[in-house]
Amino acid sequence: MKIVIIGAGKVGSTLASQLVKEGHEVIVIDTDEERLNSLQNMIDIMTLCGNGASAEILGEAEVSNCDLVIAATSADEVNILACFIARQKGAPKTIARVRNPEYRNQLELMKEELGLSMIVNPELSAANEISRILRFPSANDVELFCRGHVELVDYTIGKASPLCDLALKDIYGKYKIKVLICAVRRGDDITIPKGDFVLREGDKINITASPKNIHDFFEAIGSFKKPVKSVMIVGGSMIAYYLANQLIDMRIDVKIVERDAKRCEELSEMLPKASIVCANATEKDILLEEGIMDFDGFIALTGLDEMNIIYGMYAKAKNVEKVITKIHHLSFPEVIENSGIESVVSPKLITAERISSYVRAIQNSYSKNKVESLRRIVDNRIEALEFIVREDADYIGVPLKDLPIRENMLVAAIVRKGHAIIPGGFDVIKKGDSVVVITEGVSTVDELNDIMR
């Protein structure tokens, strides 16, 4: 597909990199020529220096001949205008990045009136992910599939865990709970494991099961933690606002520590039920004075990755139960791992994932057994894909053990009439099923039949 991206910032550059990896032709428009040159040196794209909301520049980019225009600058109004003009110039589909909370109640109206195909809000998406993790703090991360009937949970095996030295084939016999460990990271190695794989201390595993079985399994292995009741947030960003709103609705006590007095005033008006503290968290003892050890959740949401890591390490040192940090640049994942911080959220990666999933949906619009949703897990090195089986195919009714499924691919879950099945070799796929597939790397799987050799 030919895709035009307006804006070469954090979100735009991440999107361009991901879409190029998936084989798309990408043109990036930005007013900063130096930034464009830097991006072009890293990935195989075309660039155009200019205002992406200009009809002339969009004409030069030949948006009428492209498949999708994505406006991802830091200015909502520029993104909306760029998409509107792109539509007027003949672009078939447009996506706008819109962050301002003031626009939340009119997003559907904007989509309809301006012909937007999709609106993305990286900050709101990040807040959604953080609140989901806080609902199940035993996990590093939680992904939902099949309308919530299946959960994919990221978990690190600790020193005293009963999973240490246990083969996957023996898990059901020991706990009598249907779960599937579908991916394992050990050091730098990623594995989609088989039954004889033996788990070790320090392994980062991804577990697939129904929400009830996930809950029961974590209780059985002694790792279940109750949902948090109080959260301290450092940094009064847009994410902090969206997150605090959600947490207050969940009846969780929220304290936000922000150094900018004007932003504190804004937050106090927007979040009357939250405690807003105007203070510099880098100053010694500020977090102690604000009672960091009395909170069971801590979220670092400043604009600096380095400070977020330091705040997270400090919270861990003070034995806060659940610590989550926002990181934009995941260039050195081993640094984060060695810090002891288990849960990391990246708004730009979440957005790139959502848009990549939408791009696949466009590609597969003529296929009925297409990818419905896509998640990237394990440092972006594993894809989890969801399909709905809407038409007959050769694999329907055939036991999974008899299907020629490709190497490094795994059917992780089947949902049938609202019931989650963790499949064994004798289970079959039927018409109407939702199917979750795990595959290593950036896959070429666009429909369910592609997982067969």
Portion of residues in helices? 25-40%
Write out the CATH superfamily name of the largest domain. NAD(P)-binding Rossmann-like Domain
**DSSP strand tally:** 22
Shape: globular
In terms of topology, how is this protein built?
Elements: E1 2-6, H1 10-21, E2 25-30, H2 33-42, E3 46-49, H3 55-60, E4 68-71, H4 76-88, E5 94-97, H5 107-114, E6 118-120, H6 122-135, E7 141-145, E8 150-156, H7 171-175, E9 180-186, E10 189-191, E11 204-209, H8 211-220, E12 230-234, H9 238-249, E13 253-258, H10 261-270, E14 275-278, H11 286-289, E15 297-300, H12 305-317, E16 322-326, H13 333-338, E17 343-345, H14 347-363, E18 371-377, E19 382-388, E20 409-416, E21 419-421, E22 434-440
Helix pairs in contact: 1-14, 6-9, 6-14
